[in-house]
Write a structure and sequence with these properties.
The chain is an all-alpha fold. The chain has helices at residues 2-28, 34-92, 97-102, 107-135, 149-158, 175-188, 198-230, and strands spanning 162-164, 171-173. Strand 1 (162-164) and strand 2 (171-173) form a beta hairpin. The longest helix has 59 residues, at 34-92.
Amino acid sequence: MGVAHATRRGVVLLRRALMLLIAFMVLARPVSADNGLVSQQEQVKQHLASAAAAVSDLDQRIAGFERSIADTNQRIQWERQELRMLARTMYAEPESPLLAAFSASTLSQALTRFGSRYGEFVIANTLQSAGNAALGYEPRYDLCRCTGFWPRTRHAIARNFVTYNRTERERRAAIPLYAGSFGAGMISSLWLPGHRNPWKEGAYSALVQAGLGSGVNWASEFAIDIFRKITNNRYPKPE
């Protein structure tokens, strides 16, 4: 808006300059007869009309410029919101259907990847939820009660391979987690293009779960420490 203010100020100065120029032209020319005076008055009126038209045109341009600035600011805000959403998606689910669609080069490829990833994601979560419910496992991540970088890192990685049973104290192998990922990978080979080996796709999906799951657990374990480091211990406040 500073640019628009400066432009409006320039219009005011231009208007004053035009008025002074017209007055100087009128006073500088000698008046020899009444006909000459009438002619000069008509010229002054024409100059004033031209100056008013020029000022009106500048006002319209300024208004259009201000609308353009408002549209640009609105687009910037929208793009910032989109980037925040993309960042949250990358943090929470690096293999999400949204990122699979963004990495495509064509619209048809984006739709195919989105549908494939989303279908695999739904199948994996369905199988994992059913297995955890049948065995009475607690799949949610729990922060380490230990201190130190390496003990907490080992806890985050280990919790991607083991979970708690109904007692919430005894640990068990996270079989439903990897069985669900393996099964979803095998099933996804049915709709993926080309000849896909179901066992290979299942193993790949389980390996992805091992790597990304450990990374997500690690980020969850140290998220509070990272935020405190970034905000200089202002948020969240230490208890």
